[in-house]
Write a structure and sequence with these properties.
By secondary structure, the protein is an alpha/beta fold. It has 10 helices and 26 strands. It is about 35% helix and about 20% strand.
Length: about 475
């Protein structure tokens, strides 16, 4: 089992080594920028006197000029957490280098001069723009952090764009005095916000491809509040993935994060996203696909455009709002190895599309309970018009095609024109649920079946569609065609 929170913390620690390398490089650049003798643009005379030296100094200054920007970006990336002890340490370091060091140097060199020393101390303490600006940023950090936490990723991005548009127009172009050519607290706040924006973008991505998993690894994500996760990337992950939002509050209307890069999984289990209006999964193949209690608060659209094979069970249980125009689409699905189960709230799905499905089941029982031992178990009573599986040829096991209740029944026909074999029993309708909307049945290709039960379809009167299967019934012990109606 892999815990999402712990993995994110570990990933943060791994990424920190990269940030620390940038911090070390920035320190070197600080030393280099203060080593360069000239800090102004070269004049014609300077270039004429020492062309190579001047250009070299200019190049070094251009490269090292980003040092302060990098430091503040790092501060924004990790966030300044205001503590009195940390603030005291910061002030001590400033005072040590600005006051104590000059005093020590003056005393050690016998060059003590009270007036000159006072000027040096004043200059070092109050005339260094970075010291003033960073202390100001440190004091404002709690309020800035609060703004960052309360804003969405998009809102923060828009604010940063507006901030730099204003800075460019009134700071650089307008040459505002307080802006000081970018060397002020205003610029530091902007860089701090960019660092926080970059961190938030990275925090929202959980990439499973960064980790080494065994063949049967399992990842479970349980959500109890709206997640900061924006994207879940699969990479080469092929284990079991469970997304559990049973305790999530408030419930989102759309998937709160994107799923990408998943092609083959052992098990994909999505449960509890009750507020979803749409769910699209990019899986091409899996052993089990289980979707439970999703989209129950509004009309729900389930789409699996890439799914071609389910080696085990495809389950959709208690999904979709009862009575709403829910829909599910599996346009490329060809084979289900063990069980297809769509039931309960799925009875109100206006559309269930399996246009390419050819085979369901493996011939073995799916449950010790006879009442649920069906390789094929669907409740398409809410489908508008006919429920059609045009290419389904074989069901290896028992098959139940059921309706739910009169309040959701809209389906007019059950059509399986290519179905040739049901190795177990075929149940059309349900012994406990009455239906008056189904008027037509199409099992014209059926040739092999253990037994056929038709129940509670009071509007269906023509059962000749099972004629082709009658000879096979006599070859099966106990095989029979039954029609029961309880009105």
């Amino acid at each position: 089992m892999l815990n999402y929170t712990n993995k994110i913390e570990r990933e943060t620690q791994e990424r920190s080594s990269n940030i620390e390398l940038l911090r070390i490089l920035s320190m070197f650049l600080v030393l280099m920028i203060h080593y360069i003798p000239s800090r102004t643009l070269p004049t014609h005379d300077t270039l004429a006197h020492d062309t190579l030296g001047t250009l070299f100094d200019l190049e070094l200054r251009s490269i090292s000029f980003v040092c302060v920007n990098c430091f503040i970006l790092i501060s924004g990336y990790f966030g300044i957490r205001w503590k009195l002890k940390s603030f005291s340490n910061l002030l001590f370091q400033i005072l040590f280098w600005a006051i104590i060091c000059p005093v020590i140097v003056s005393a050690a060199t016998d060059s003590f001069n009270a007036t000159d020393l006072f000027k040096t101390l004043y200059h070092n303490t109050f005339s260094r723009w970075f010291i003033e600006a960073y202390i100001g940023l440190y004091i404002l950090a709690p309020m800035i952090n609060r703004f960052i936490e309360k804003s969405t990723h998009r809102e923060l991005g828009i604010f940063i764009l507006a901030f730099y548009l204003f800075s460019t127009l009134f700071g650089y172009l307008g040459k505002a005095y307080d802006f000081n050519k970018g060397m002020s607290i205003i610029s530091l706040v902007g860089l701090y916000l960019i660092g926080a924006y970059l961190r938030r973008k990275q925090d929202g991505i959980f990439d499973l491809s960064k980790y080494a998993f065994s063949e049967h690894s399992a990842v479970t994500l349980r959500f109890v509040s709206t997640p900061k996760l924006t994207e879940l990337r699969g990479g080469g992950f092929a284990g079991s993935l469970s997304l559990d939002a049973a305790a999530l509050a408030p419930q989102p209307e759309t998937m709160p994060f994107a799923l990408s890069g998943f092609e083959r999984l052992d098990v994909l289990h999505v449960v509890g996203f009750k507020g979803l209006s749409a769910l699209s999964l990019p899986v091409a193949a899996c052993t089990d696909l289980l979707i439970e209690n999703c989209g129950t608060q509004r009309a729900f659209a389930l789409s699996l455009p890439a799914l071609e094979e389910v080696r085990g069970t495809l389950l959709c249980k208690n999904c979709g709002k009862t009575g709403a125009a829910n829909s599910a689409s599996f346009p490329r699905l060809r084979s289900i190895g063990r069980q297809l189960a769509f039931y309960v709230n799925v009875s109100s799905f206006a559309s269930l599309a399996f246009p390419e499905l050819e085979r369901v089941g493996d011939g073995f029982g799916v449950s010790d309970d006879a009442s649920s031992d069906y390789a094929f178990y669907t409740m398409p009573s809410g489908c508008t018009g006919a429920f059609v599986l045009p290419k389904l040829k074989e069901v290896r096991g028992n098959m139940l095609l059921s309706t739910w209740n009169a309040s959701t029944d809209r389906v007019a026909a059950f059509r399986f024109p290519a179905l040739e074999t049901v190795t177990g029993e075929l149940f059309v309708g349900h012994a406990s649920y009455k239906n008056r909307t189904v008027t037509a049945l199409d099992f014209s290709a059926l040739r092999q079946v253990g037994s056929v039960y038709v129940g509670n379809l009071s509007s269906a009167t023509d059962f000749s569609t099972f004629a082709g299967a009658l000879p096979s019934l006599s070859d099966v012990a106990g095989g029979e065609l039954r029609r029961e109606s309880h009105v």
